[in-house]
């Protein structure tokens, strides 16, 4: 490639890049402009903002006697030029703008300085140093035959001879076509319709997004609920099965000790093994109970003596309670009706309340640690079981939160006990509530409807 050719190629590449940038900026303006005037003026300004063009202007062909091309937008050097000349789109007009308006074809004039022929526009052009000039038509035909909606031209002037090659003409003609379309849209208030469409599209898009978010939130919620249910089940199993498992291990150890003595004590070992079997059964019952809790009909196990159930729980937790120096008081009503409940589940509830009471009193050193269990029937006929302690108590502001799954203030707590207990009580049609103890501690109360009982 010769040096000339290389230079030519470079210049072409630069021009192409510049035109692409211009096109890009114009394109944005086609959509952004709010009025025809703003559109035309902005396009002229964009066109002269590169260093290729000196003047850009848009003229509309008037239907007056002189067939005037009236400048409606202009930008660049030498805008006075437009005040000095009168351009017409009538038959004998030699100016490119007039020709483009009349013929609807692009018109190019090159080397004006070398051929300063007579005529006002030519001398004015020369005076402003314009050497080449093109005009591309802005013509839009109406849907009605023979009616022209827009009759105008975009004219570009530069000091550089030969600046407008065929490629340039194609480029600016294409730009003019787009500009014509944009003007038509703005005029026909199609813009309004477009804006309306865009608004409608945006609304639809936003609705779709909101629906997506809602769907996702629902899926997340379901997942959390499933996890909570699974977590409750697992936590509940761990909580309840740990106790008999612990007892099995210590009885197993005791049995081994009895057998490992110089004179093995078979009777003690047999007793330890019996306790192991009983605890094994209890663990099995707990699991069966938990499973039934997750079945819809959570079987009731026939009329139960709730006083007996309370005593049973106290027997189970005897070791823990004694180990903490807690005194136990019971006030169990003789008038208690038997009610049909799921025995293992209710046992689980009372055991959980008792263990919480034990925990709450473990930090208490300046007063008696007292655990009180009461049963009775209230005025409405509901069977009440209350578990009272003299522990650290609960801030009334936390009365609701403590029933939330995973709410715990204990370093090794799961925060599931109260949540599971409340669901069990509610499955039985009852209520589990909390109140402040007087003068210290907390009072948890289970209220069960006696109407569901069969043994009144
Ligand atoms: P966890 O015992 O694993 O913490 P719970 O659901 O049984 O789970 O209890 C939740 C929380 O409620 C406890 O961590 C504790 O802060 C509070 N709480 C429950 N019972 C008592 C009580 N008798 N006295 C004081 N706080 C209690």
Would you give an account of this structure?
- The chain is α+β, with helices and mostly antiparallel strands.
- The protein is built from 12 helices and 12 strands.
- The strands form 3 sheets. It has a 5-stranded antiparallel beta sheet with strand order 2-1-5-4-3, with helices on both faces. It has a 5-stranded mixed beta sheet with strand order 7-9-10-12-11.
- Strand 4 and strand 5 form a beta hairpin.
- Helix 9 crosses helix 11.
- The longest helix has 71 residues, at 190-260.
- 32% of the residues are buried.
- Residues 452-456 have low confidence and may be disordered.
- Bound molecules: adenosine-5'-diphosphate.
- Adenosine-5'-diphosphate binds at residues 352, 356-357, 360, 389, 391-394, 402, 407-410, 413-419, 442.
- Adenosine-5'-diphosphate binds next to helix 11 and helix 12.
């Amino acid at each position: 490639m010769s040096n000339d050719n290389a230079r030519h190629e470079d210049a072409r590449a630069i021009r192409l890049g510049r035109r692409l940038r211009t096109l890009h900026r114009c394109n944005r303006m086609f959509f952004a402009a709010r009025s025809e005037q703003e559109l035309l003026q902005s396009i002229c300004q964009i066109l002269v903002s590169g260093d290729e063009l000196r003047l850009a202007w848009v003229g509309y062909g008037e239907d007056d006697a002189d067939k005037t091309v009236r400048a409606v937008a202009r930008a660049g050097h030498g805008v006075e030029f437009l005040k000095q000349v009168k351009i017409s789109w009538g038959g004998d007009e030699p100016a490119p703008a007039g020709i483009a308006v009349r013929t609807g074809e692009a018109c190019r004039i090159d080397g004006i300085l070398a051929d300063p022929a007579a005529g006002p526009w030519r001398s004015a052009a020369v005076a402003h140093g314009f050497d080449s000039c093109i005009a591309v038509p802005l013509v839009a035909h109406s849907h009605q035959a023979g009616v022209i909606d827009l009759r105008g031209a975009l004219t570009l002037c530069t000091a550089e001879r030969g600046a407008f090659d065929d490629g340039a003409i194609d480029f600016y003609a294409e730009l003019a076509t787009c500009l014509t379309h944009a003007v038509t849209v703005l005029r026909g208030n199609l813009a309004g319709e477009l804006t309306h469409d865009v608004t409608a599209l945006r609304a639809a898009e936003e609705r779709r997004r909101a629906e997506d978010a809602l769907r996702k939130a629902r899926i997340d919620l379901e997942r959390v609920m499933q996890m909570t249910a699974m977590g409750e089940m697992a936590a509940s199993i761990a909580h309840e099965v740990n106790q008999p498992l612990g007892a099995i291990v210590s009885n197993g150890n005791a049995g081994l000790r009895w057998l490992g003595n110089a004179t093995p004590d078979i009777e003690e070992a047999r007793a330890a093994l019996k306790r192991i079997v009983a605890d094994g059964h209890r663990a099995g019952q707990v699991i069966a109970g938990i499973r039934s809790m997750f079945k819809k009909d959570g079987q009731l196990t026939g009329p139960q003596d709730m006083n007996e159930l309370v005593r049973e729980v106290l027997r189970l937790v005897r070791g823990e309670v004694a180990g903490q120096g807690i005194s136990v008081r019971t006030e169990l009503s003789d008038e208690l009706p038997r009610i049909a409940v799921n025995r293992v589940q209710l046992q689980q509830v009372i055991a959980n309340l008792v263990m919480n009471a034990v925990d709450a009193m473990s930090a208490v050193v300046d007063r008696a640690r007292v655990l009180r269990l009461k049963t009775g029937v209230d005025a409405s006929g509901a069977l009440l079981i209350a578990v009272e302690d003299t522990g650290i108590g609960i801030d009334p502001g936390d009365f609701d939160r403590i029933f939330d799954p995973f709410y715990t203030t204990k370093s090794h707590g799961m925060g599931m006990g109260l949540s599971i207990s409340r669901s069990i009580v509610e499955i039985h049609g009852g209520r589990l509530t909390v109140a402040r103890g007087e003068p210290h501690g907390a009072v948890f109360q289970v209220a069960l409807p006696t109407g569901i009982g069969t043994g009144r």
